[in-house]
Amino acid sequence: MAEKGISKDLIGTKLDRYEFDVERGKIKEFCQAIGETNPIYFDIEAAKKAGFEDIPAPPTFPTVIQFWGYPKIWKDMENMGVDTSRILHLKEKYNYVKTLYPGKVSSQGECVNVTVGKMDTMTFKTTIKDAKGDTVIEAEMSIFIRKPE
Amino acid sequence: MSKIEFDKYEIGQELPPLKVDPVTHANLVRYAGASGDFNPIHNDPDFARKTGLDGTIAHGMFVMAQIGRLCTAWADQKQIKEFGVTFKAMTKPGQKLTCSGKIKRKKEENGEKLLTVAVEASDESGEVKASGELVVVC
């Protein structure tokens, strides 16, 4: 097996564009998994009463879109030279342009930064758009790759 | 959650903290299924040990989700403009997290009144697992 490693040449690499259907049931499942109990995430009437159009997706839900919508990310990272068994999450940041509601979204990630050296890191920027093509959320994720002992 | 009013908050003011039940292996398996993040370092202790960890660790995003609960318990989600964290330490099953927040900055920018809150999650020994910022538009 070739020795793994990342390089700055990866900056600018675009991942595949994909679509994902944000379902109310998936929002509910995610909220149950994180211990969220606010009825706005489970009951459409409660959500509407609180001024939402539909059940909103909670702030960290975009991670569901990224992993369930694009399970190929692991393979892509391996192909980029990342030892995925040694990844740790370093940073995650979301800009919320609009509230994320159930419905079809499309998304695409891009590698926007790589550092190599004492600490190998990669940063991906992902834009999530609604069915009309309007940006809903911009996400930025940084990972680092632990060096073997 | 309620509508946050800019004038009602002062720098240094704290959000009501959120105490989280101790993280269990079952929580992480469930979170893996819900989020789709099946990296085995979170659900397979033998695999985790083989990669040099001393057992499974919680998903960073599980920890961030707990801070997210603190944020949405405080503010109307429609007001949340930005939310970001840096992960500082690994969270292991058995640890008990507390999420907290403190008003860090108040500013008016492009006609928006913005409150920035420093947020973090730490365990019972005080080790900070993740810290970052929440920005709400008032």
Automatic annotation (TrEMBL), chain A:
SUPFAM superfamilies per UniProt: Thioesterase/thiol ester dehydrase-isomerase
Coiled-coil segments on the chain, per record: none
Ranges where the FAS1-like dehydratase domain occurs: 10-138
Protein name: MaoC family dehydratase
Upper taxonomic lineage: Bacteria, Pseudomonadati, Spirochaetota, Spirochaetia, Leptospirales
Automatic annotation (TrEMBL), chain B:
MaoC-like domain span: 11-123
One Gene Ontology term, aspect cellular component: fatty acid synthase complex
GO biological process terms on file: fatty acid biosynthetic process
SUPFAM superfamilies to which the protein is assigned, alphabetical: Thioesterase/thiol ester dehydrase-isomerase
A single GO molecular function term of this UniProt record: fatty acid synthase activity
Designated name of the protein: Dehydratase
Species the sequence originates in: Leptospira semungkisensis
